[in-house]
Design brief:
Length: about 775
């Protein structure tokens, strides 16, 4: 029936070499499928009252059926019957199969003539969705010539009989047989039979079953863009979607070029910006740039002249198109080109006196400065002030959240940051900005974790995952496929891994893999978390041979993390000089980018390298520098870890009393918020300090002190066992055997000595001992 569509409902005209469609001046046209939708609406109004549940199901189905792509009659009837079998049966038998399909042309004409009367005294208003659809269909039908009406009647008969041919097919008129025997129709019927095999949801169909009207094209593009933003897993494959977009341009060459462009993403009332989005999702720099540049050409050609000012015409579209070009360059790291595009967008926005566009430009300007590593605090503050002045809560909230990120990196106290987030949350709930509520909760989760409050971070992540979205669910998409949910789930996976719950970690990563497949834009978040968890587990288990490919994969996703993990691996392999060179180079890079967390970790790792050569005194300045940075930036977790390193250094320098004081001061925070590894290391250090102090005690008190140290070692061994950290568990067995030897407990000594020997044989390549490792 493709040939019937093209001859009936698509009448191209050539003007100056450009093909124009919709010559009747309407945005929709009549098709056999639309007649079946009209029949459904007629039946819903004139039939007996339906049950409330069935009525609600049908009401939910009306808008997608009106604006979605044309379905075959079998698919349409199956969809209706799934909602209400009674209505589906009535539509099949009374209106389509018997009244029009097997009737005459006057039956179809009578059907259209009865539509206004049947709806005049009903619950449907002229301005409702159903009323507007009816008016569009009647207008399009009334503008058809007689020959076109006749062709529509023939197409309707083919549409009906193509589903279930009657037994007396040979009794059809000869002219019908001629129509059904043409090559185009036979090929189209074969395509429909292929589509009819298996259950299909109407919204999963391709739009290339025939030419799409402007309304159908807008609905299709809006659906695909919504899925790109909220659930990329349900979007068409990139190549297939590109084919559909080309198909839309073929039948709608004068499609409107985005009068409602969004400053962050194109709102898909145009297929060319949708091509841009489709290229962005596969990181295709060339195609996405080409699409935007082609969009500029189409704007200028359609307007006759490329004016850049004014609220009407193409000026607004051009401004936001240039802004999107700047964001494209930002995403791919082309900072110079992004800056030039932003300056151009600012210039034409100033000419048009478009304050909203200027605020979006200012938001991207401070984002660009932050991506380049420059100080963007003043620009961000100005953006928040101006957005508040022009009553733009979305931009103001984004600016405040950017200030929170910068404040956290600069060491702002936690209460000020959380107060700022709480104030933005009030605005979010007031104006129902559900997307920003999710972002705020995800950022709060990250802030608490950065400050070392794992319990609070856990709570915020759970609050986000259990929150009911304020945004209405469209196209069957739940609001759990956004970046905020991916960030929260990654935090949960890492928090579970820190507690040794690797079974739960596998479940979370598997869920992330299903929700965010590897080809989607947020997949690298969980991929990086998964690789880091695997690397830490391999290092804890002493399986250094597993780590090199993980380091390579981590470096592909995050260069800084990759270098840091490579240094850790080289340190574990006793390649001290190579590890030291990497740490020095990485520290210089992090000082330029002001990555305080990574600088502290690098200082701690460098201090551990000094331990390998017994340079405990030379490690002290590095540890004191790390402790100062941790306290300055309120990083409790890193401060606790630094104090553990300082205590170990003091123990090795012969000051166990001072080391024990330090450990007792930080033990509560470690046990409350630390990982299992940190808890075990802290208790192991305390036991060693207790044993060292006991050596100087009188004989009558020494045994009691050694037993206390033994109990502490038992508790540390429990944590290492839960984490399956075999190397440190071996150290615990070694110290326990030593304590029992001092106490004269020969059987217990032999037992722990045997456990130590078994682990020592299982880890033959490990050369680190409790003397040079915390």
């Amino acid at each position: 029936m493709a040939s019937v569509h093209e001859s009936l409902y698509f009448n191209p005209m050539m003007t100056n070499g450009v093909v124009h469609a919709n010559v009747f001046g309407v945005k929709d046209w009549v098709t056999p499928y639309k007649i079946s939708v009209l029949a459904l609406l007629y039946e819903m109004i004139t039939s007996k009252p339906l049950a409330l549940v069935e009525r609600r199901r049908l009401n939910k189905l009306i808008l997608p059926l009106q604006q979605g792509p044309d379905l075959t009659l079998r698919q349409f009837l199956k969809t209706v019957e799934d909602c209400c079998s009674q209505t589906g049966y009535a539509v099949r038998n009374r209106y389509i199969k018997y009244s029009m399909a097997d009737g005459e042309l006057k039956d179809m004409e009578h059907f259209f003539s009865t539509l206004p009367n049947s709806f005049s005294d009903s619950e449907v208003y002229k301005t409702s969705v159903v009323g507007l659809f009816m008016r569009h269909m009647l207008l399009a039908y009334n503008k058809l010539s007689f020959s076109q009406v006749y062709k529509l009647y023939k197409a309707l008969r083919l549409y009906c009989h193509g589903v279930q041919p009657p037994p007396d097919l040979s009794a059809l008129p000869a002219e019908d047989m001629e129509l059904t025997s043409t090559d185009d129709t036979a090929g189209d019927r074969m395509d429909k039979e292929e589509l009819d095999t298996g259950p299909l949801h109407p919204f999963d169909l391709r739009c290339t079953q025939g030419p799409l009207s402007q309304k159908q094209a807008e609905y299709f593009l809006a659906r695909q863009a919504y899925l790109l933003k909220n659930d990329e897993n349900k979007v068409m494959k990139a190549a297939k979607l590109q084919t559909e977009l080309n198909h839309i341009l073929k039948f709608n060459p004068d499609f409107p070029y985005g009068d409602d462009l969004n400053p962050d993403l194109f709102f898909p009332s145009c297929s060319i910006p949708s091509t841009y989005l489709n290229s962005m999702r596969v990181q295709d720099v060339y195609s996405s740039t080409h699409s935007l540049l082609h969009y500029f050409d189409r704007l200028i050609l359609s307007a006759g002249e490329g004016k850049s000012n004014g609220d009407d015409g193409n000026g607004r579209s051009l401004r936001y198109a240039i802004l999107n070009l700047a964001t494209l360059h930002c995403r791919f790291g082309h900072y110079q080109q992004a800056d030039l595009a932003l300056q151009e967008a600012i210039r034409i926005a100033q000419e048009a006196n478009d304050h909203v566009c200027l605020q979006h430009c200012l938001s991207w300007l401070y984002t660009l400065e932050k991506m380049k590593g420059s100080d963007s605090w003043v620009l961000t503050e100005d953006s928040v002030k101006m957005a508040t002045h022009f009553c733009l809560p979305y931009l103001a909230s984004l600016g405040i959240q950017s200030l929170v990120q910068q404040g956290a990196a600069q060491g702002t106290v936690a209460n000020k940051l959380l107060d700022a987030l709480r104030s933005t949350d009030t605005v979010h709930w007031k104006v129902s900005l559900s997307e920003l509520i999710e972002i705020s909760l995800a950022q709060t989760t990250s802030v608490w974790r950065m400050y070392g409050k794992s319990t609070m971070s856990w709570q915020q992540a759970q609050l986000l995952l259990n929150m009911n979205s304020l945004e209405p669910v469209n196209f069957g998409v739940q609001q759990n496929n956004t970046e905020a949910f991916a960030v929260a789930l990654c935090h949960l996976a890492e928090l579970h891994a820190e507690q040794g719950l690797y079974g739960a970690v596998s479940d979370i990563i598997e869920h992330l893999r299903r929700q965010f497949p590897p080809h989607t834009q947020h997949a690298k978040l969980w991929m990086l978390s998964d690789l880091k968890i695997q690397f830490d587990r391999a290092m804890n288990d002493g399986k250094l041979h597993v780590a090199p490919p993980l380091v390579t994969a981590i470096a592909a996703l995050n260069h800084t993390e990759g270098l840091y993990r490579k240094a850790l691996l080289l340190k574990g392999l006793k390649q001290t000089s190579e590890a030291s060179k990497i740490l020095q180079r990485l520290q210089q890079q992090c000082e330029k980018t002001k990555n305080t967390e990574m600088i502290i970790r690098l200082l701690l790792t460098t201090a551990e390298l000094h331990w390998e050569s017994c340079g405990f005194a030379t490690a002290l300045p590095l540890l004191l520098q790390a402790l100062n940075l941790s306290h300055t930036h309120n990083l409790q977790c890193l401060a606790s870890e630094t104090i553990l390193h300082l205590a170990f250094t003091q123990l090795m320098l012969g000051a166990p009393e001072q080391a024990l004081v330090l450990l007792q001061g930080v033990l509560e925070a470690v046990l409350a918020h630390g990982a299992l590894l940190d808890k075990g290391r802290a208790l192991l250090l305390i036991a060693r300090c207790q044993a060292s102090i006991a050596e100087a005690m009188p004989e009558e008190k020494r045994a009691m002190a050694l037993l206390e140290a033994f109990d502490t070692l038992e508790e540390a061994g429990v944590y290492f066992s839960r984490l399956n950290c075999l190397e440190r568990l071996r150290d615990v067995y070694y110290l326990q055997a030593q304590l029992h030897h001092f106490l004269g407990h020969t059987p217990q000594r032999n037992r722990y000595a045997m456990l130590f020997r078994l682990l020592d044989q299982e880890l033959p390549l490990s050369q680190s001992t409790a003397i040079t490792r915390i």
